[in-house]
Structures are given as structure tokens and as C-alpha cells.
């Protein structure tokens, strides 16, 4: 009598890879790349505020060339007049008022920092809102007066960081003909890197405002398509054949039912990366920007059956 055991998988479908949209809290993701999940962040222009129109500006906030009046703010986003007849012009980048020093210091004065006769000028700068009202003289490469707030500059720096949704890795694999088995471990991971998981640190300037931003993924939440959500605080573990039927040590799942009856007979899966970006800027300004970037895939789950033949 001859017995042999055959394992038959009841489902055989072609895996469908769904498009990858992206969502964001704070800066808004408008044009995600369908393959990588890379997101373009649109930064809104400052809203004109009559109370911050420079002295001598036109009614309604208009400026030559059709632009809008600068929005001058001090941390945390409190509007201030852009000009003061005694103190000079407000600098969003420095968080102070500055006016051209007259007369200019001699060329031997250390305040020039080696720029005397080359570029920029020396300004008398004061902070009427802080502890040190009189800051003294500063060399500046250009006249003070920035139209960019620290918050807007931070958003611009975050855009340059090229933060992305999870680069999904999963077993059973998301490719045609790949079928997983109910009860077998499912491994999920994302390829770690500065743009896919962090950490990433970037110091950059936008509109004359220098920002240091530190970004990292706080967690990746996997919606497994069967009503289960798995929260992973690490990038996850890449599956290897040596693992066999062992569960993932940090980011895994087991299905209890096949994917039959689901759209395309596959479980739709989403991975949402919750990015947290802490930033610091001039004059003690600081804040946090969060981005929720989402990527999608799907996997087919079948059922193992043992058939005994004689």
C-alpha cells in the first residue's frame, strides 16, 4: 500500500498591486509617486494681514509687482508690525528689529567678520519682546525683513527631506502566483533608510530662515484587510527561509480565513507611516510637523489541505 501526501492550495490568482496614495497631516501630499510613495508637499503662501503691512504700504496689502504684503511674526506665530519708526524693520529670521547703523563701524571692527567693503552691512538690532532689548550690532548679508515665518520655513525644509511612505516588504510576496497559507506567519517590513524610516537630520534655509529638522517614523500601522491592524515600532524583520513557521519577532500577522470573496480574491493591505519631524529655528522658535504617508499592496491567502491516496 502506497501513501503519499499532497498539499494543494485551493486558490490561484494573479496578485494585483494597487496604486499608492498618500495622506498628510500638516503639509498636504498632492502628487505621490505610485511606485515609491514619494510625496510632494505644497506649502501655502502667507495670508496677507493688514496689521502687518509695512509702514507706507498700499491699502489692502498690495506691493509693487502684484505680490502680497510680508507677514511678520514672532514665535509662536504672533503677528508684529513689519516696521517700527525707531527700531527699524522686523526680521522673521532673527526675531528682532534691525536698522542700518549710521555711521558704519570702522573696517577694523570685529563685527564685520571679514566682510567689510565686500557685501552686506552692519545693523543695530533690538528685541523689544525678549529679555535682551538691546542686542547690539550685527553684520547681515542683506537688509532685514523676511516674508517667511519659521513655521513656513520648517515646512519647506521638510519638503526637501524627501520623506516617503513605507517601501513595503511582505511574505507571502506581493507578486503574481504567490499564495500564502491560512495559519502560516505573515512577515511585514519596510526597507529602513533616511527617507523611508529615518532618522534623518537636515539643516537648511528657506527665505533666509535657517531651520534644523529631525525626522523619524514613530510607527507603521498595517491594516491587514481582515479587520486587524498591526502597529510596528520598528522597520520589521525581513523573512528568511530559515525562519520556517516562526512568527516575526516584531512585525507579523496570521490569517484565520482565506482571501476568497475579497476584491480580486486578495486581502487589501495598507501601511501608514507616521512621521514625526521636530524642528528648531531662530529666536527660540520650535515646533513639530507630522506626516501620515500611506502605501498599499495586496496578498492572496489560500488554505492547506492534505489528501491521502492509496
pLDDT < 50 runs, ≥5 residues: 1-36, 38-70
Given helix and strand content, the structural type is mainly beta
Q: What Rg, in angstroms, do the CA atoms define?
A: 29 Å
Quote the distance from N terminus to C terminus: 6 Å
Largest sheet: 6 strands, mixed
Q: Roughly how much helix do the residues carry, as a percent range?
A: under 10%
From the spread of the alpha carbons, the general shape counts as: elongated
Supply the number of helical segments: 1
Total domain modules: 2
Name some characteristics of this structure.
310 residues, mainly beta, 38% strand, elongated
What does this structure look like?
The protein has 310 residues and is mainly beta. It has 1 helix and 20 strands. The strands form 6 sheets. Strands 12, 14, 15, 16, 18 and 19 form a 6-stranded mixed beta sheet that branches. Residues 1-36 and 38-70 have low confidence and may be disordered.
Give a short synopsis of this structure:
This protein has 310 residues and is mainly beta.
What order do the helices and strands come in, and which of them pair?
Blueprint: E1 4-9, E2 28-29, E3 41-42, E4 73-74, E5 78-79, E6 83-84, E7 88-91, E8 96-100, E9 121-126, E10 134-140, H1 150-160, E11 168-171, E12 179-181, E13 185-190, E14 200-206, E15 209-223, E16 229-232, E17 252-254, E18 267-280, E19 286-302, E20 304-309
Parallel strand pairs: 12-19
Antiparallel strand pairs: 1-20, 2-3, 4-5, 6-7, 7-8, 8-9, 9-10, 11-13, 13-17, 14-15, 15-16, 15-18, 18-19
Amino acid at each position: 500500500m502506497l501513501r503519499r501526501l499532497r498539499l494543494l492550495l485551493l486558490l490561484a490568482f494573479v496578485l494585483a498591486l494597487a496604486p499608492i496614495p498618500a495622506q498628510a497631516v500638516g503639509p498636504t501630499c498632492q502628487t505621490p509617486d505610485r511606485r515609491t510613495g514619494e510625496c510632494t508637499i505644497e506649502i501655502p503662501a502667507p495670508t496677507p494681514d493688514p496689521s502687518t503691512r509695512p509702514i507706507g504700504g498700499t491699502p489692502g496689502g498690495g506691493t509693487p509687482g502684484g505680490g502680497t504684503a510680508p507677514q511678520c511674526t514672532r514665535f509662536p506665530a504672533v503677528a508684529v508690525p513689519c516696521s517700527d519708526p525707531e527700531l527699524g524693520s522686523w526680521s522673521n529670521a532673527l526675531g528682532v528689529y534691525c536698522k542700518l547703523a549710521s555711521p558704519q563701524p570702522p573696517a577694523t571692527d570685529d563685527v564685520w567678520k571679514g566682510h567689510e567693503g565686500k557685501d552686506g552691512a552692519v545693523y543695530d538690532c533690538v528685541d523689544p519682546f525678549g529679555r535682551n532689548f538691546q542686542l547690539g550690532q550685527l553684520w547681515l548679508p542683506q537688509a532685514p525683513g523676511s516674508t517667511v515665518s519659521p513655521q513656513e520655513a520648517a515646512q519647506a525644509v521638510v519638503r526637501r527631506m524627501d520623506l516617503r511612505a513605507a517601501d513595503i516588504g511582505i511574505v507571502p510576496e506581493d507578486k503574481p502566483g504567490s499564495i500564502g497559507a491560512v495559519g502560516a506567519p505573515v512577515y511585514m517590513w519596510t526597507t529602513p533608510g533616511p527617507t523611508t524610516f529615518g532618522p534623518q537630520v537636515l539643516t537648511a534655509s528657506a527665505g533666509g530662515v535657517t531651520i534644523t529638522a529631525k525626522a523619524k517614523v514613530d510607527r507603521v500601522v498595517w491594516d491587514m484587510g481582515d479587520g486587524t491592524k498591526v502597529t510596528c515600532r520598528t522597520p520589521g524583520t525581513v523573512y528568511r527561509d530559515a525562519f520556517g513557521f516562526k512568527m516575526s519577532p516584531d512585525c507579523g500577522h496570521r490569517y484565520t480565513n482565506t482571501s476568497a470573496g475579497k476584491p480580486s480574491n486578495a486581502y487589501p493591505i495598507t501601511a501608514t507611516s507616521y512621521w514625526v519631524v521636530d524642528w528648531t529655528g531662530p529666536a527660540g522658535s520650535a515646533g513639530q510637523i507630522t506626516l501620515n504617508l500611506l502605501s498599499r499592496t495586496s496578498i492572496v491567502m489560500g488554505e492547506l489541505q492534505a489528501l491521502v491516496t492509496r
